[in-house]
Every structure is written in structure tokens, then in C-alpha cells.
Amino acid sequence: MSTIVYGNLSVEIIADLGARVNRLSLRSAPPSLVPRPFRPPESGRFALLGRQEHINEAYAAIRSQRPVEFTATCGYGKSTLLRHVAANAVSDGAARSSVYLNAGPGGTDDLLQRLVTELYTAERPVKLTPDQCARLLGQVRAVIALDDVALGPDQVEYLLRLLPGCSLVLGSSRPVLGRHGSSRVLAGLPDDAAMELITSELGRQLAVGEQAAAGRLVAAVDGQPLHLRQAAALVRENGLSFQRLAETAERDPEDLDRLSVNALAVRERRALAVLALAAGALLPADVVGTMGDIAKIGESLGLLHRRGLAEQHADRFGLPVCKVGGYRQLLLKDLDLAAALRELAGWLANRDPASADSLSAAGAALSIIEWAAELGDWPAVARLARVAEPIFTLAGRWEASRHILDRGLEAARATGDRAAEALFSHQQGTLAFCQDQLDAARALLERALELREQLEDHDGAAVTRHNLQLLLPAPPPPPPPPARTALSARRALLVTGGVLVGLIVLVLGVVKAVTPHGPGHQAAATLTPSPSVGSTAPTGPGQDGTGTGTGSTGPGGTESGSTGTDGSGSNQPPLQPSVVQSADLGQVDITPGQPPATKQVTVTNPNTKPLLITGAQAGAPFSVTLDTCSTGQPIPAQGSCSITVQFAPTTLGGNTGVLTIGSAAGQSTAELTGSGFVTLTVTITGNGSGSVRDGRGIACPTQCVEQITAPGQASARLIETPDQGNVFNTWRDACAQFGKLQGCDLSQITVDTGVIADFHLG
């Protein structure tokens, strides 16, 4: 199925050409939506220990129909708790129906569409208009568990208004409910529940000699369930001792992640790298296997799940978003990135775009598109945008579609791919048309048509031309012809003759009026035809790009005239310069060869008339890499465009710069910020064990990475400490010159630096 219904429109995806829109006849009945039969959400696979108080609190809030939220950082079991509540609310008598949904990034429009899809079914894909969505969801009576909520206060309040009959249970990394409900922070497990979790994951009781070390481990990780599962797997699968794991966690609990990853075989590392690349999206197993070139992918994913490294929900696998950054740093070198992205694009291109598996994989593509755009890998962005955007369009996820199209258009212009620019402009214009943004739709579709005609893409141009035609109002039906008789024919001849005589007299009068009446005298006549009823005159800015011009009639016969901007005879205020937002481009590794950071900056026209942008520039180490504003075409009134800024620092520490936007109304500026860093990686090798410290943060038992973010941090003294019964052997890599000497002094680290400390059994 490649068609979705929206209001009185049908949107059909035509492969490689874009979407074709048709109006539905008045006789066409809209797709009927019926409630889905209730199916309890899947509960978490891990035992929920030590959370009964929170479960009871959630059920009490559900019964009183009062919103409640649970906040926690990564690894404390927030998602497991929400899944348990949603899966058991009905059987425990707290509700009659329930839904669990990972909200993730994005706005409320896509979230509400996903809720409709969860709660209702239709004979063909349908996207509800905002009014339809509000009416339908206003009738729902269910528990709605929303995880990883990233909405702002106004969006949460809007969500609550639209779901008056529902009990909302939210999970987030920070409080979002405010005064609208109760909020509870998830802390670590109590000691007894933590020890029970360890023995459950270990598959046996703790030996007498292990109990004290396991207790130290629980304290070191603050009872965090995820770290406890990882530690139990390292004991169970790799034979590590609780003593060593406790010492590791006491130095840095995150080292348990590194130990767990380093213990994996090659194919499991590649599978985990694919999940890290997907950045929290849940992928079908065959997609992971295809992208990672992994045979028997089910075995690898099952092992990752048992080790607490990957999440499994039904037949799909993923990572908590909060783990993505660290795992990418550890694992992407194990993956052929170019091949993985090609395989994902190919997989999406050859699957039913309306299937649930395609939508899951498109979610991964959306995350990868963002990551590739930050790296400036524009060919990958364009390739993935082509195949992922139609899937979101057919799913009614139009906020995601628009975001992908913005990135795709940016990539097409950066690479000079005019065919891709035409396709993405066509799709943007079609979405704008569906959402009644008619001026934007016309401009985008006209640009797409221009490009497709230049490229002699006749099929694509026909689809774009068809959508453009729908923007014109339908002409009124012609009146029925009068009955012809001999008498009426004679009367028609008399009337015609009279009209001709009248026209001759009128022309003679005009000629007389424009004839000079004396030296220095000049008369002028201006003929302005009146628009006929139902006609549409073209609208748009004046040719000078400032929005000046004569009045015109827009769609539906409304007047959309504009006035001059020079102040002569005009009551309109003068044009104001554009409004441009400040941007923080974050941290960038200054080591030569490392990718710079990029970010889109929005430039907005605050005026009620179009505004011509004349240029954009930024001072080093910032630069403008893509300018969609200075195209020679003005920004529409209240419209916006984007400038892509790159940050490529060469020094440690903070940098500031200024982005300057020129326009017909003057300059506007915005502050740009970012900072440079390098990494110091310390690795422990040999058949012995020990650790390395630097007195500032590194306390390394296996491998650890420290970011150096300021010149004052660029010097370090590393001290090696062998474990009992072990001896220090030698320094290697950047410390090789110190050999077997105690301590390694590093000074002025300005590139990524690696150090190896080798320990042997005594």
C-alpha cells in the first residue's frame, strides 16, 4: 500500500518521482477507524525487583486519573518500570486498556499520530487532521505510558488537554510534568533487591568469599540495575571476580561498559556497533545482520541481550539512547560504515514502505541522517533521505518527513545533485500543500518543476505539474446555453452590432484623452482590468525582492496586495533585518583529520513582506558551508531559511565567533560558540593487572579515555600501580621513552594521544 488519506486528499507515493496528490470526491467516504482489540503491551524481559513502592504509586495515580512521571538517568530501570506498569495495569484492575510508547525526540503531531495508530485500525492508511485527532483521542479511556519524553511544558500541557480520559504515566531523564502531576526520581535498588538481581543474573548463589565484594560492587554502582546485570554477565561468561569488578567500579562505574564491550567477539562487536549507529531505534534482527555482515545474527543479539548490552522488545533490538555516544566511540572502528549505510538504504528500498519493519528501520535512518549531517557526509544523507522519507509520509509521521526533507535538500545542494534537489523540493511542497501552507507549497513545487524540466525529467515534471494544478481554485461551471430561436438570433445580431459601435466610440474617446493639449501638458491613462469572479491572479514579491508590487487576488478570491517599502505614500513600517539565532556547536576534536562540527542556524524574516538576504559569513574557526538564504529569491513574510555553519578549531578550549547575515534591510548578527578538545587514551595490557592514575580523573584498570579541553590540562603525569602479586613491565606508545621508569610525564598534548601500560604476573 503506497497511499495515505488526509482529509479530502489522497497522497500516493510514486517510486523515485515523489508524492502525487488527488482530491477525493464528495461521495468518497473517509476511511473508517475502529478501536484495535486490546493487547497488553510487552513487559520487560528482566525481573522487576525492588520497585513495588513505585508500582503501587503508579497504580494509585492511574485509579485517580492523575498524571505521574518517573525520572532517572541511564541504567536505573525507568523503561523496565513503565513497561511493567503498562503491561499489568489491566490485569491488576487499575485500568481497562493500556499502551506503551517510546516518545523519543520530535513534536506532538507525530506523537499523536502514533497514538492513533496504536489505538485504532483502518482499512487503509490514514492521517487525521488536527481536529479529527483531537476529537478521536478525546474519547479514549486508557493508560498511556510514554517513555523518554522530551517535550516542553507547553507540549505536555497540550497533550494532557487532548487526552482528558486517559491516565498518563511518563518516563523522562528530567521532570516535564511540572504542576500537572506528581514526579518521582528513581534511585538505585535497595541492597537486598540488588543482591537478588545479581544472583538471578548469575544463575547461582554467591559463594561466601564473593558476598563482601558483591556488596562493595552494589555500593560502587549505587544499585544501578544495568551495571549489576553487566557485572553478573562478566562473572558468568568471562570468569572475572567480583573483587576485580568492585575495584573497577569504585574507580569509575562506566568502566564496566568498557570491560563488557572488550570481552565481546568480533561479530558481537559489529552487531553492537550497528545498534549504536541506530541511536536508540529498535531494529529487526535481519537489518542488523545485513548492515553488519553478520551470519547467525540471532545468536549474537541474544548474547548481547543476556549481557545487558542490548535491549530486546519482541523481535527487535536496540540500545538506550544514553549509551549511544560511548558505544559509538568504542565500536564504530569495527564496522565498515560506508557499506553499512549502503546496505541499510538498499534494505529500505526493497521493502514494503508501509510495513512495521520498514518504519523501525526508517527510525534508525533518521538518527543516522542526523549523525552523517554533523560529519558532513552529504552523499549518505541524500541516499538515506530518499528511502526513509516516503516511509514516514505513509505512516503519517509528517514532522519526521519534513525534518528528513530539510536535511536531504541541504545534502542535495551541498553535492550539486539537482535531481535530488528537485525530488526533495517536490516532497516539501507537497507536504506544505497538504497542510494548507499554500504560498510555501507553490514556491517549492515551482522550483521542483523548474529543475525537472531543465533535467528533462518528463515523468517527474508531470507529477509536480499535477500537484501545482491542484493549488489553483476550480473554475465555476459554465452556465447552460440558452435555447436558440430565430427571434433570439436576430436580437443577438442587434446586440453585437450595438456593442461594436460602443467600442468604437470608447476607443475614439481614449485616443482623444491621450492627445497632448499644449506645450508641457501630458495626460496619462492607466487601464487596470478587474479580475473576473473566481479568477486567480498570481501572487508573489516584486522583482526587486523587497515585496513591492500591486495588489493581487490569492486563492479563494482574497486580496493579498502589498505596498512599497521606501516609505513614500505607505503606512507600512520599514523592513527590519532578519532574526538569526545564536548557536553552540559543542566540542570538536582538534586532531588533524577529525571531522568538524556543523549546525543549521535558522534565519527568520520578521516582516509582513518578503525580505531579500544578500549574504552570510562567519569568522574563523567558524565558516558558512551551505547558504540556503542567499539564493536571489526573498524569504517570504514570516518565513525562514537556514545557514549551515562549520566549526573546525585548531586550539584547545573555548572559541567564539560572529555569524553575520546581510539583507536588503541591513545586517543582523548571532554569536557562535564551541570548544576544542583532544583525547588521552590509557590502555592496560599484559598477562597481569594494574591501574594507571593521573591525579585528575583517570583511574584506569583496563582502558579509559580522558578529554583534554583546555591548555592547562594538556600536561599530565601518569602513575602506574600494579595489583597485588603483579609487577609493572613497561610503558609504550606516547610514553615509550620512559620504558620501565616509574611515572610518565606528558606535556602539551595537542593531538589525540594513546598510552599503554604493560603489567605482568609477579
A few lines on this structure:
This protein has 22 helices and 29 strands. With 762 residues, the protein is of the alpha+beta class.
Could you walk me through the main structural features you see in this protein, from its secondary elements to its overall organization?
This protein has 762 residues and is an alpha+beta fold. Among the domains are: 1-30 and 378-470, Serine Threonine Protein Phosphatase 5, Tetratricopeptide repeat (Alpha Horseshoe); 33-185, Rossmann fold; 191-260; 579-675, Sandwich (Immunoglobulin-like), CATH 2.60.40; 677-761, Roll (Ubiquitin-like (UB roll)), CATH 3.10.20. It contains 22 helices and 29 strands. Strands 16, 18, 21, 22, 25, 27 and 29 form a 7-stranded mixed sheet that branches. Strands 6-9-10-5-11 form a 5-stranded parallel sheet, with helices on both faces. A 4-stranded mixed sheet has the order 3-2-1-8. Helix 3 (108-119) crosses helix 4 (130-137) and helix 6 (191-202) runs parallel beside helix 8. The protein is globular and about 110 Å long. The protein starts with a strand and ends with a strand.
Per CATH, which architecture of one domain?
3-Layer(aba) Sandwich
CATH superfamily of one domain: P-loop containing nucleotide triphosphate hydrolases
Largest sheet: 7 strands, mixed
DSSP strand tally:
29
The CATH topology of one domain comes to Rossmann fold
Portion in beta strands: 15-25%
Distance between the termini: 69 Å
Contiguous uncertain segments of 5+ residues: 484-489, 492-496, 503-570
Count of helical stretches: 22
- Specify the overall morphology: globular
* Category by helix and strand content: alpha+beta
Radius of gyration: 33 Å
